[in-house]
Amino acid sequence: MSRDHVQSAERPAGAAALPGGGPEAPFLELLARGASADAYEQPVLLARAEGQPADRIAALEETKVLALRVRAELEGRRRREAELSALFETAHDLAGLRDLDAVLQAIVQRARSLLGTDVAYLSLNDPARGGTYMRVTEGSVAARFQQLRLGMGEGLGGLVAQTARPYVTEDYFKDDRFQHTHAIDAGVRDEGLVAILGVPLTLGPHVIGVLFAADRRARVFEREQIALLGSFAALAAAAIDTANLLTETRAALSGLERANEIIRDRSAVIERASDVHDRLAELVLRGGGVHDVAAAVSQVLDGTVEFAEARTAPPQALEASRAEGHAVRHGDDWIAAVAAGGELLGALVLYGHPGLDPVDQRTLERAAMVTSLLLLARRSAAEAEQRVRGELLDDLLDARDRDPRLLRERASRLHADLDATQVVLAARPDGPAAGADQEADARRRLWAAASHLAATRQGLAAARDGGTVLLLPLAPGETATDLARRTARQLGTAVHEPVTVGASAPVAGLAAHPDTVAAAYAEGRRCLDALRLLGRSGDGAAAEDFGFLGLLLAGERDVAGFVERTIGPVVAYDERRGTELLRTLDAYFACAMSPARTKDELHVHVNTVAQRLERVGRLLGDDWQDPVRALEIQLALRLHRLAIPARH
Asked: I need a surface site. Which of 143, 213, 273, 310 has the fewest CB within 10 A?
């Protein structure tokens, strides 16, 4: 068998590349079939084994890095989608709750699967006997472990139940932050657990149990995993609360068998609650928004329900709802806090409905929980898009990616057009002097506002040099100055403090010439620094706004533009009429702005000089002899004279 035939037989699927083919082909195939990260080394190793040219191998190396980045992003998105899907499925199970044990078992199974742990389990507090006992386990093999009871403060679970705070340990037996007991340690040792994460199940301020995820090896649980387990714990607590509520409802109905009308009314209410749960789950699954949830609940409760931002909702009622975990009455209205992980995201407000049935109250609370899940999902998607936009702009600023086709494709996925005329803007907050933490917070708020503005304007934004850089398209009839001032106003309004913005001159063809972006950014920063030095914080400007100073600020030294802006009307008048206004201006400034000396220099009557200067005033404005304007005009005259030989 020949050597070429052997190499062909040993080449892994997706590693082969046709001669002259693009270096991305094998990696696209690996991405398409979901290959492991190790497989991405094969195309490069094969190319070296076949003795391919160095530039081909370098291209494969670069493409491999990009492909691995894409794979990581796809893996992250798939993981987030799986997490949200599991949360939504659990919420749907909760909406049709019939068997509490089945719902709790599903929660524990999904928590174990998503966190990838060996074991997951849930314990409930026992108010009558004290302590907490094991209720549901998944992946457990030790009988003694499954029958454990923990006193308050004993073991990691007892500490979580007592403090109502999540706790995590990388190595249970080496951790002395909690009380070890012989019974608990024996059960944990039987199960072979090492790393344990526990989060509280809370209803308002009360802890009713603990949800755990554990591994039989040392492991560090990430913040996202702790938050995810906390979300499952919230659903488990809601399931238990709903089951208790249904139990209470059934008990009440059984005691009122003779009151048929009351029974029918109560049944109708329960059916309505189940219906709204199904409708909310359907809204989530088809991608509905916060206002869709409010509209659906409005129909079910026969009232007006609206979502309110945290800053606009009644503060005392909002805080009480978050603390109690229930909707609270506020006058004739009801307030249900929308919160996640201790963060207040807003509230659902039911207006003008003081007599709210308990089941309808729970419906409002379930809607608030679904709203929090939707807001978290949208935030995650928005943050991912912001990161992608920032990465593309960083690559343009650093000129790391010079392939025009790939740059256009990346921009197109973000609805940005690198071939359109763009302006690079440098923005920086200019609020009152504060500490380092306040400054860092101001920069984070500015980056968030700039990212939102870039997304709505089909542009890009990234944090850089203590501020933010934006790449925004220039609208027809709009100047760089207009765009800079409008951006300064919009960002300042969004972050509630002055934001100064310096703009570059318009640039185009950035995909083919990525180096242009870095030069334009440098020009924008010079304009930004000039604005701050001139005491114009909170304003926006481009180089053209600074007169002849703009020549120093502009990256390309737009001499022709400066001359046109300064004495263009006089040049055009002389060319149309054959007059000598430019020559008269030259002589007038050379003669120290003396009309008498000017008429001798030109050998004309003094009235002729006066008439010409009057015409200049009408063309340039009445302030043309002010010191600053006069200096700019003299500079423009000299630059115009220097440019004449080049044109002829």
From this structure: 143
Instruction: Give SS3 for 626.
Output: coil
- Each residue's pLDDT tens digit, 108-131: 888 888 788 999 999 998 888 878
Tens of pLDDT, residue by residue over 143-200, are: 999 998 888 778 888 888 888 899 999 999 999 888 899 989 999 999 999 999 999 9
pLDDT at 252: 67
Which residue in 343, 311, 543, 336 sits closest to 423, CA to CA? 543
Distance between CA atoms of residues 528 and 506, nearest Å: 16
3-class state of residue 140 by DSSP: coil
Q: Quote the pLDDT of residue 19.
A: 46
Instruction: Spell out the residues 6+ positions from residue 378 whose beta carbon is closer than 8 angstroms to its own.
Output: 289
SS3 288: coil
Nearest Cα neighbor of 179 from 160, 195, 206, 196 is 160
- Structure tokens, 158: 């007892």
Taking the mean position of all CA atoms in its chain, how far away is CA 549? 38
Residue whose structure tokens are 């499925």: 89
| Distances in whole angstroms, Cα of residue 77 to Cα of each of 36, 107, 156, 301 | 16, 21, 32, 36
Mean pLDDT score, 352-372: 77
Most confident of 210-214, 256-260, 317-321, 382-386: 210-214
Catalogue the long-range contacts made by 561-566 (C-beta closer than 8 Å, 24 or more residues apart).
562/636, 562/639, 563/636, 563/639, 563/640, 563/643, 566/632, 566/633, 566/635, 566/636
DSSP letter assigned to residue 538: T
pLDDT tens for each residue of 502-541:
888 898 887 777 778 888 888 888 888 777 766 778 888 8
Question: What pairing do the DSSP bridges indicate for beta strands 499-503 and 540-542?
Answer: parallel
* Number of Cβ atoms within 10 Å of the Cβ of 225: 20
Q: What crossing angle do the helices spanning 480-495 and 436-456 adopt, rounded to 10°?
A: 130
* Helix and strand counts by DSSP (H, E) for the chain: 23, 15
Strands 149-150 and 304-308: unpaired
